[in-house]
Design brief:
Layout lengths: L2 H13 L9 E7 L9 H15 L2 E6 L15 E5 L7 H12 L3 E5 L10 E4 L2 E4 L7 H6 L1 E2 L11 E5 L15 E5 L6 E2 L4 E7 L10 E10 L2 E6 L5 H5 L1 H16 L9 H6 L4 E8 L6 H7 L4 E6 L2 H5 L9 E6 L6 H12 L3 E5 L10 H8 L1 E2 L12 E12 L15 E9 L2 E2 L4 E5 L8 E5 L7 E4 L5 H5 L1 H14 L5
Parallel strand pairs: 1-2, 1-3, 3-4, 4-13, 14-15, 14-16, 16-17, 17-24
Antiparallel strand pairs: 5-6, 7-10, 8-9, 11-12, 12-13, 18-21, 19-20, 19-22, 22-23, 23-24
């Protein structure tokens, strides 16, 4: 192509409109003080926001004190999401929300919004009962259901199959049946004009009705679109892939009257393409349940849990896993476990040793001398005194000089944590120390890579407390370490 033709092509390309991007939907989230004895509005709000953020189509604002909103508060929003079961709104706020939806605004509400003060109920004698007033009489008309207090209930929390009675509806178009893990509400009244888009069989064996119960429906309120679901008891309910699709698509429909979001394979979306295969080994020492939450938050990782040596090392590892995360504490090792681990390391695979795993396999010198590069002495030996530990300490961990750009420390920075510290250990002089502490009850190295550069082993001293596992900086550190150990670091 000659210079003139090339210039013409560039000018034509510049004149063409850019590829259309999905329009951003503005969503106002009403939440706050609710029936905390049954529902954690904070965690479910976060779960919904995470789902919407993953679609890239919503601009959300959260209001945790919705009782004093005015008509102006709803201006500019495509839809309102309600995650609230608290005291009545002010009369002005109720009228403003009615007018907003009636004029064409979208509305989404769910689960805990199915009963309470808005329906004229009172919580007495540890249950919801009819109150002295009828409540907000327009609200049941908006969401399309009512529920007599004496009928409030559900089958025992269980998993069940959700079907779509109208598979051609924009919300459910192309969605297969899916498994819910939730409470299956029953014995409520679906008002005329409510159009079910999801239902499930309520098994009598677990306290159900023996009928198919509606789970989600659409309806009109004036010119507004309403999407309602009785699902959504807790974060576990929102974790189900089918539930995520139903919520994301239902809210988009309520907001715009159409659904442009494709059904997302959330399993693959969570892991990303070519996920890191991680084996997490525990046993021999207690640990907080937040350890599992941290593993679930590792981006691009699919992990398998092994709680015993037999589970972990009964078969060869290198073809099944990219890295092994050790959070166990076993001083002795079998010959078969040694063979599996040595083959794994020799194959260039990675090892992350977390906290008390520094005590692992101390009967195997090759492991602590050549792979991990450290050893905690539970008992004194003629050559070395016993190591020590102290729990519940507040301390600062900082990058070692010159190590700030190491891929394991990307985005981590200094960490101020409450955790357990170890002192009086043996460390190889060939380890590469990445983070240290100057606390008097600890040896300085806190994060370091092992002495054998081909082994891709790293030890992280932190990992005793729930506080640490919940720490965003620690989660980033472990995520980086897993990627580095699996040879996936940027």
């Amino acid at each position: 192509m000659g210079p003139k033709r090339a210039l013409l092509a560039l000018l034509l390309a510049a004149a063409l409109p850019a590829p259309a991007q999905p329009a951003t939907t503005k969503l106002l989230v009403l939440t706050g003080a609710s029936d905390g004895q049954y529902h954690d509005w904070r965690s479910t709000t976060s779960a919904i926001l995470e789902i919407l953020a993953r679609t890239g189509r919503f601009d959300t604002r959260v209001v945790e004190e919705p009782r004093t909103l005015t008509a102006a508060s709803f201006t500019g929003y495509d839809a309102v999401l309600i995650n609230y079961n608290g005291p009545r709104l002010s009369a002005e706020t109720e009228k403003a929300l009615e007018a907003y939806v009636s004029a064409g605004g979208g509305l989404f509400a769910f689960h805990l919004c199915s009963y309470g003060e808005w329906f004229g109920m009172e919580f007495r004698a540890n249950k919801w009962q009819s109150g002295p007033t009828p409540g907000w009489t327009e609200y049941p008309k908006m969401i399309g259901m009512s529920w007599a207090p004496e009928n409030i209930g559900h089958a025992r929390r269980w998993t069940f199959t959700v079907d779509h009675p109208d598979p051609a509806h924009p919300i459910t178009l192309g969605l297969p049946s899916w498994i819910a893990n939730d409470e299956l509400y029953h014995k409520f009244t679906l008002l005329p004009g409510s159009h079910p888009v999801a239902d499930a069989f309520s098994p009598p064996a677990i306290g159900g009705t023996g009928n198919r119960e509606p789970l989600a429906w659409t309806r009109s309120y004036g010119r507004g679109r309403v999407f309602y679901t009785t699902l959504g008891h807790d974060t576990m309910a929102f974790y189900q892939p089918g539930m995520r699709n139903l919520i994301a698509r239902g809210i988009e429909w309520a907001s715009t009257g159409r659904v442009t979001s494709p059904a997302i394979d959330w399993h693959k979306s969570d892991r990303g393409p070519n996920p890191i295969r991680l084996l997490a080994v525990t046993g021999g020492h207690a640990y907080p349940q937040e350890f599992y939450s941290m593993l679930n938050r590792l981006p691009g990782v699919v992990w398998t849990h092994a709680a015993t040596e037999q589970e972990a090392f009964s078969r060869p590892l290198q073809d099944r896993y990219d890295a092994v995360l050790l959070h166990d504490m076993r001083e002795t090792t079998s010959e078969s476990a040694r063979a599996r681990l040595k083959s794994f390391v020799d194959a260039g695979k990675g090892v992350i040793s977390l906290h008390h795993a520094i005590v692992d396999y101390t009967d195997w010198p090759w492991w602590y001398e050549h792979v991990i590069g450290g050893k905690y002495f539970t008992k004194a030996t003629p050559a070395h005194p016993a190591s020590s530990y102290k729990e519940d300490l507040d301390f600062l961990v900082t990058p070692a000089p010159g190590k700030q750009r190491h891929p394991v420390l990307a985005g981590v920075g200094p960490l101020h944590v409450n955790d357990e510290l170890y002192k009086g250990m043996w460390h190889s002089d060939k380890i590469d120390v990445l983070m240290t502490t100057d606390h008097p009850d600890s040896d300085p190295p806190v994060v370091y890579t092992g002495p054998n550069p081909s082994a891709r082993a790293i030890h992280i001293r932190l990992g005793h407390s729930a506080h640490t596992f919940n720490h965003p900086g620690f989660q980033r550190l472990v995520s980086n370490a897993v990627r580095w150990a699996a040879n996936r670091a940027n």
